[in-house]
Design brief:
The structure is a homohexamer of 136-residue chains. Chain A has 136 residues and is mostly helical. Chain A is 68% helix and 0% strand. Chains A, B, C, D, E, F: InterPro entries: 4CMD/NDH-1_regulator, AhpD-like, CMD-like.
Chain lengths: 136, 136, 136, 136, 136, 136
């Protein structure tokens, strides 16, 4: 279902954090981790009609509808990794207002603010590199 | 908030059915009709960062999250009117599976099927032209 | 928990249709019918701090949040029976817009419109009296 | 993930209607039909720890939480096919009251009532056999 | 849409914390802050049919339906600011039990408890004045 | 509605923590505490058709549908107290994937992981005994 020359969706979305995120899911339950990798990402996400940026903007808004669980931050980063501008992410979140009302959207912009704030801070010099908890 | 040379989102989404749809909303409540036109469409929808096709694909998936109310059909048509292919609409609906589960998505594909089936039938020759109930 | 001189909430909300509505619930399941009468109405609804009109306006908006199931029509009628004006019902439904978005509210105004339309029609002269299906 | 001597979950749940139901899903979208069969049923449903009756009672209550879409009827029938008694189905639906409130549960008992009523009627003598629309 | 002699809904609801709350929303996104102020409050909230106390009790219960996001505390305070008694707030939250079930309501009473507890403590004597995080 | 020789559902579910949990609910609101004890547990939960293990597995999945509020941990423990194995709890949570999607299920497995991790640690030797906050 996937063009062999294109990178996998999960490689772009998760970037360098993919091993850590996959390990965290596998630790919750190895089958759950496998279902997410094999079915959610390598089967559904890798369908060919939409480009990854659009998929990630859709993912962000679906996560807003679910009350902005920690996955929202992962997919905000995924949308930016896939080429979306900050303005595009903001307008995608804003489009949720007429469909879902303001409280869901305020919560989403809080997540966006935390993500942008964490990027502005200089990276810590400890060896392990940045680890943002709560991501998936 | 809008580029004056671009058509308004609601002109493209609703197409020739705009007067009928706006009238139906105004009949429910004139203020409700005005809020949808002035705030939802002419303020939020006309924000400039995303193109209308992406906005409409996002709208479709948000309506799947809400249980596929009648507005889903309007925005499936809106996505197609804005240049989305049928395959893009299908992949947007399918991307809801990992976030929302199957029942919401099955309901959405039922709406898509009804819409596609109504387009295949030859238009009735009565004077009033096609009117699809339940649209917004 | 109830002032003995005040009418029971369910007497006002259901009016002359109370026997029919209770019978319909008992037919679904006698225990379910009893829980709704004894717990929902005679315990929770009959709490003393709020007047019934306010309770029914709250009930209407909670039912909007649930996607306007058939109970919404019962409680729109209940709010009117408890002394709410049509304008108060409309403003209660409209207050859902900033919290829940437009699709839930459009569905609610459709229910209101059906209720108001059914009241405008002259009652049928058949013996059985008015029966509006789908009410609870 | 499945004991080879046990029947597949979908064989028991759908019974003689499996070809019709699978065809309906494939008609909506062939990939959607395949995901439901291969992932939802043959991967998740066929996990070994719980017996099928318990799985179907859980499925029923999850569908109540989603607002009782048409799939609820399929899984009420599935629970009965897997050996649940009518009293067990009723108590599973009733257990949703403290978690989800009454409107969701009333809607579910309406579905149960329709299912039970359709079984009491003598089968039509036309050749095609019984076909209950709206099932999945 | 507003009686010029009546105070604005947001002046009463937010009280002395209005500048802080508006600033927090504007920091998330200036357009989001403007939409909430101009559309949610100065257009929808200032509709004339219901008094502000009733609007705020409705707002509280809608926020219970959304899972008690931080805005619930703002509107519990808003209901009290608009003249609701603690008993009225408790009965409004309790009325959510038959519609939404217990878990949503337990979460709401936790928010109420936190709000009441914070009011009982003597104000700190530091210069900056009380700041309750998480409010909107 | 209850076999007098069987233990009450809430005795098994809450175990030794019942007094603490009931006190916490009563502190939120004495009527709320009474409704949960008398209606939710001693009326609905004590219905006779299903055994307690099945009821608790259903409760767990309904709480997943609600976004895994703190009650989920109580009922994971309740399911284990009622005789469910860890594998049965895992398969019940996993069955939510096709109905609710992955984010709700990931959140639920996080709760399970916290519960299992807290049991592995040796109990503190302070006098008061273990108190896990956020339980109900």
């Amino acid at each position: 279902m996937k063009d062999d020359t294109a990178p996998r969706a999960r490689d772009v979305i998760f970037g360098t954090q993919q091993p850590r995120i996959q390990q965290r899911l596998d630790d919750l339950d190895p089958d759950l981790g496998a279902y997410i990798r094999d079915f959610a990402y390598d089967t559904v996400y890798d369908r060919p009609a939409l480009d990854l940026k659009v998929k990630e903007l859709i993912a962000c808004t679906l996560l807003v509808s679910l009350g902005s669980p920690p996955e929202l931050r992962t997919h905000i980063r995924g949308a930016l990794n896939a080429g979306a501008t900050e303005a595009e992410v903001r307008d995608a979140l804003m489009l949720c207002v007429p469909y879902l009302g303001f409280p869901r959207v305020v919560a989403a912009f809080e997540v966006l603010r935390h993500h942008l704030a964490s990027k502005e801070r200089p990276a810590p010099v400890t060896g392990a590199g940045p680890v943002d908890s709560g991501d998936q």
